[in-house]
Amino acid sequence: MPGGTEEKEFKSIAEEIMGKIRRSLEDPAGYMRRRKSERRQKVVGWLLTDIPEELIHAAGALPFGITGGREEHSRSDAHLQNWACSMARSCLDMGLQGKLSFLDGLLIPHICDTTRNLGGIWRHARPLAMMENYLLPRQTRPSAKTYLVGELGRLKARLERCTGSEITAGKLSESISLYNWNRRLLRKLFGLHGEKPGLLSNRAIYDIIKSSLFIPKEEHNELLQELIDHLTGETAGDGRNTGHVRLALSGKVCDPPEIMDALDACGAVVVADDLATGQRYISAEAPETGDPIEALAQRQLSRIPCACFDTGETDRRRFLTDLIKASGAAGLIFLHLKYCEPENFDYPDMRAAVEAAGIPCLRLETDIGGVSQGQLETRLQAFVEMIKGGTDVDRPAAL
Amino acid sequence: MTDRPPFKTAGLLKKLMSDYYAGGNRAREKGIPLVWVTAVFPVEIVYAAGLFPYYPENFGALAAARKLAHVLSVRAEARGYSFDLCGYARCGIGDSCAGEHPAGEIERPDMVFCCNTQCGSLPKWFQSAARFYGVPYFLLDSPMIEGASTTLGRDYFVAQLKEMIDFIEISTGRAFDFGRLAEVMALSTETCRLWNEILDTAALRPAPFGFFDACFHMAPIVTMRGTREAVWYYRELKKELESRMAGKIHAVPGERHKIYWDHIPVWPKLRWFSEYFSGRGALVAASQYTHSWTYSFDTSRPLESLAENYTGAYINRSFEQRVQMKINFINRYGLDGFVLFSNRSCKPNSFGLYDKQKVISRRTGLPGVVIEGDMSDLRFFSEEQVKQRLDVFIEQLEKGGETQDKKQGGGIVWK
Ligand code: SF4
Ligand code: SF4
Fold first, then answer.
1. From atom 3 of ligand 2, which residue's Cα is the shortest distance away?
2. Strand partners, B368
3. Which ipTM did the prediction report?
4. Model confidence, pTM
5. How many CB atoms lie within 10 A of CB B273?
């Protein structure tokens, strides 16, 4: 056990790092605007999910993963029906407010019918210097690879024109290594969070991942390394006998982030997920050998399943039940953004498969930029209590 | 559709379609695979392979037109499917999993083929159906075309067509017959040509045919293009239109205005809309929807030509191109205004309409309106609200004067 002074030191350093991360998350657009002028670099924004940020980085620009704002998004009413998901509405709203006018470019992946139309609307309502749809393949047969290599080449050329700087194979390989390193550190932290609940709250680990979508990777890696150095010595909250209920999440994002606070408050620890701001982001390393564009294509086609793609043989239901079992989670929470069509289509079969495997499920429909917090908390609490009462808490992972 | 003799071909259509559905049963008896396909799908390959294509979207539209969409939807909802999903999908899923079939039974597939040119809903629906029925699923992925179509996109689609043909050869145990494909593609081109000639009669002032007629007569162009029967049917319809023109039987008696409609009709309210407009002397003359089937194939390079035609569908294009396509209809048909239907079921067609209305009005100087509702589910349709908006629109049309003295149909020649 660490002594009093050591503990204090640990706390203060870790808190300092978390403080930095939290402050950046209060207003990511403001943060990026400042970084742009400090670093004299261009900034290229991107919307979820699967944008190959390495290309943006290798073009000498700062990638900015935009995940919506915290305010109401009523400005988007005039452009996008209120039965569009709040992710699209909120991001567009930030654009309409002028909060993103500092961007030198914006990349939107065509992953659903909302993102299919969003770029056109945005370009019309409030154009940016460069706005590009990333037309990634939605299937994974051999034909997809050849096409994707071509599409990545197109994107590369667009980014080069935007920044005026050539993306050489060397630079791209370096960016890939840097990003892989970040993902490895994030996975390490995620592992620590699961092994030693309490060391890093749910809120903290997901805040850290979210901040990695925009804090420059060089700096983010340093923050993470420092945090890991301080946490690995720690034995606080050791082991699996802490009374925590282990849970898995499925969906796109965990927003509003207060959901994580609520989970922390009722003694749950999230040990696995398939979120775009979770495992989908941190598990996706690109090979560091061979042609770097091919490596990015390879990575894209071997990502974990999600609702927006046909992953052929890799059935998302099986993936999810396996994930839950491997992580020793005792329950699953679906976090679905209201009006998200791909998730709405997957949900019934996924739930049926997970429940058939004997795992209790809860579904929360969320909205970016606002929910009635109290109601969410009550439902989360009831779910966690139900698991505590009914199942073996902290059942060891069936690894 | 009021105050005028019904189409004689309506009887032929009924027979044709019941033969088509009977063909599905025959195929099953003979062990010929019945495959689900989407409306904008290179069905020519399916016909050429001797498989039986079935259109679940058509099932959805029929159920909706019979005012049964909410009945079926509720069953899908009971299984956890949200009522925010596309209405066709809710009808299909609701019928698949129920014991009773008030709208007739959706066909059980042996294989499920899907093309995502139209939307992202179809792949999700079809995939869930493939899981439900435990049959193979094959997706043709069609990247958006934002300017001119690219070699990259075309080659990708062609590569997938080859993968699909390979998949079919393995499933049927027969080599694919490219000679037969050329025949089917030629028949399909001919069907599309006739269909478009028929649609173009709506440009005449007054016109013998309009959008609501097209909604009625479109089943064969969707399901049977590539067959001799479809060619025969549209020849018959064209002949009948000629005689109706000679007999001065018009779609809207006393036609004074022509308007554009985007995109799918409100199926359970087809008659209501038709009567609303004709009662005000307005003919809905064109819609991107009924003009979806305008393929023209080059049989000397079959796969490339299929790829160009099927990936190039309007819905798979950029905001700007889609605006321009609507304006082209307005000019070609000499229209006086436009109605854009913000259809809760159909996100790919509806998102962007608010801005498009403004752009089109600005560029053409014509009145336009956006109405809210759902193409199939009356729970999301308020007659009162829609009527209010349309009334304002009609007033604007009236202010714009009687028929603007345009050249007949801005240059369409009726052959
Ligand atoms: S949340 Fe769902 S509907 Fe919205 S952009 Fe993402 S995938 Fe599309
Ligand atoms: S109505 Fe729209 S969403 Fe539904 S299947 Fe047709 S194109 Fe897709």
1. B346
2. B338
3. 0.95
4. 0.95
5. 21
Give the model's pLDDT for residue A282.
Answer: 97
Per-residue model confidence (pLDDT) at position A240: 52
The CA distance from B123 to B37, in Å, is: 10
> How many Å lie between the centroid of ligand 2 and the Cα of residue B14?
25
Q: Which residue type does B165 have?
A: I
Q: Are A276 and A288 in contact (CB under 8 A)?
A: no
The helix (run of H) or strand (run of E) holding residue A63 is strand A62-66
| Longest CA–CA separation in chain B, Å | 65
pLDDT (0 to 100) of residue A8: 56
- The set of long-range contacts for A6-11, using a CB threshold of 8 Å and a minimum separation of 24, is A10/A230, A10/A231, A10/A233, A10/A234
Which of A76, A83, A111, A117 is the best substitution to test chain B (most B C-beta atoms within 10 A)?
A117
Of all protein residues, whose CA lies closest to atom 6 belonging to ligand 2? Answer: B346
Distance CA B73, CA B87 (A): 7
**Nearest ligand 2 atom to alpha carbon B118:** 7
Pocket of ligand 1 contains residue A80 by CB under 6 Å: no
Which residue, judged by its Cα, is nearest atom 1 of ligand 1? A340
Q: Nearest by CB to B152, which of A113, A138, A147?
A: A147
pLDDT < 70 regions, chain A: 1-11, 234-242, 370-372, 390-399
CA distance linking residue B380 with residue A153, whole number of Å: 44
Nearest to A135 among B79, B120, B143 (CB): B143
> Cβ contact (<8 Å) for A137 and B123?
no
Q: Cα of A347 to ligand 1 centre, how many Å?
A: 14
pLDDT at A239: 52
> DSSP readout, B197-244?
HHHHGGGSSS-S--HHHHHHHTHHHHH-TTSHHHHHHHHHHHHHHHHH
Report the atom number in ligand 2 closest to the C-alpha of B57: 5
Distance of CA A176 to the CA centre of its chain: 18
pLDDT of residue B401: 63
